[in-house]
Task: structure prediction
Amino acid sequence: MTDNIAERAIIEGKYIFETKKTVRATAQHFDISKSTVHTVATY
Result:
């Protein structure tokens, strides 16, 4: 996963949008915490 928060927001947001997955499922997919997904998603 990239360290650039803008790139991460796009990658994770696209994943959530295209797969209709939850924050929990997204966190598991990218091997990160739910808090990190929330932080990036609200960036």
